[in-house]
Automatic annotation (TrEMBL):
It comes from Kwoniella heveanensis BCC8398. Belongs to the MIP/aquaporin (TC 1.A.8) family. This is Aquaporin rerated protein, other eukaryote. Pfam families: MIP. SUPFAM superfamilies: Aquaporin-like. Residues 277-296 have a biased composition (Polar residues). The chain crosses the membrane at residues 34-55, 88-110, 131-154, 174-193, 205-225, 245-265. It is a multi-pass membrane protein. Residues 298-309 have a biased composition (Basic and acidic residues).
């Protein structure tokens, strides 16, 4: 390190350096928190702009088909169930790919993948401090509103990307669907990014695939929020349902559930259960010599028995 007070006397240099060091560290930490906040804000905008853009595209296309069908025959288009399944797949894939792309850019210095529930889990395990948790969560919520507003201005027609219960799903069912799907996503972040191992550099790919698979399940029933910011942003533009609270409570409970399971795994030293699981050293591969030797010995014994007969 340099000597910033080299021209001062020893006593004055000591007093000024000791008083300025904590301030320097504090300001550096605030600076890092603000950079992370800015990254989460921009990243959330990009993630949701492209993901929600796919939802808007799917819903606009469905509405156009329904309108055309009504003009022609006044009945529902043929194969509507298949079209719905394809739409669910399209939306789920769009969210997964958007998360993969944007997390690949931002997670290295923000780490929260644009989701307050993930931020909460990282705070609870000590990966980020409470101040950063508050800042990045605020950035995620505001970023979601901005992304929804931009999408509303860029696309024709009314915005149609809000989440909602479907297929007769009641509020309790929706709450627990959001809880379990969010828990799965949060756990993927904890095990792929918070835990350091050979797969950590590929964590964004794991995030994207996890979001894709949980949305394949939840999109038809809850709209597949899995993220309070994703539900909150569009609702600020389109309006809030009276059950909007499930998209706050469900993901929060999911984050707590995933965190509890992660802490349990750490307490039981999960890495000792299958040691060497991440190793690429060929010498740690299972030895098959005892098995082949036993098989050869059994074969020789069988030959001797046959000859004796």
């Amino acid at each position: 390190m340099g000597r910033p007070f080299a021209n001062l006397g020893n006593s004055e240099k000591h007093s000024r350096s000791t008083s300025s060091a904590p301030k320097s560290g504090m300001f550096a930490e605030i600076k890092n928190d603000l950079i992370a906040m800015a990254g989460e804000f921009i990243g959330t905008i990009l993630f949701l702009l492209f993901a929600l853009g796919a939802v808007q595209t799917a819903n606009a296309n469905t509405s156009a088909n329904l309108t055309q069908s009504d003009d022609q025959s006044g009945t529902e288009p043929t194969g509507s169930d298949s079209n719905k399944l394809l739409t669910y797949y399209y939306i789920s894939a769009a969210f997964g790919l958007s998360l993969f792309a944007t997390a690949s850019i931002f997670y290295r210095f923000t780490g929260s993948i644009f989701n307050p529930s993930v931020s909460l889990a990282l705070c609870l395990i000590g990966a980020i401090k409470p101040v950063r948790f508050i800042l990045v969560s605020l950035a995620q919520m505001v970023g979601a509103i901005v992304a929804s507003a931009i999408l509303d201005g860029l696309t024709p027609g009314p915005l149609a990307v809000n989440v909602g219960l479907g297929l007769g799903t009641n509020r309790t069912q929706g709450l627990f669907i959001e809880m379990f799907t969010t828990a799965c996503l949060v756990l993927s972040v904890l095990m792929l990014a918070a835990e350091k191992h050979l797969l950590t550099p590929f964590a964004p790919l794991g995030f994207g695939f996890t979001l894709f698979i949980v949305m394949l399940f939840s999109t038809a029933f809850t709209g597949g929020a899995v993220n309070t910011a994703r539900a909150f942003g569009p609702a600020c533009i389109q309006g809030f349902q009276d059950y909007h609270w499930i998209y706050w409570l469900g993901p929060t409970l999911g984050a707590l559930l995933a965190t509890a399971f992660y802490v349990f795994l750490k307490e039981v030293h999960y890495w000792r259960i299958t040691p060497g699981q991440d190793s690429t050293d060929v010498s740690e591969s299972p030895s098959v010599q005892p098995v082949t030797s036993r098989m050869s010995r059994n074969s020789r014994d069988q030959v001797r028995a046959d000859n004796a007969v």
